[in-house]
Amino acid sequence: MALIFGVIFATLAFVYVGCASAEEPQIEWSKTFGGTGWDVGYSVQQTADGGYIIVGYTGPFSGEKNVYLIKTDKNGTTEWSKTL
Question: Is the pTM of this model over 0.85?
Answer without folding.
Answer: no
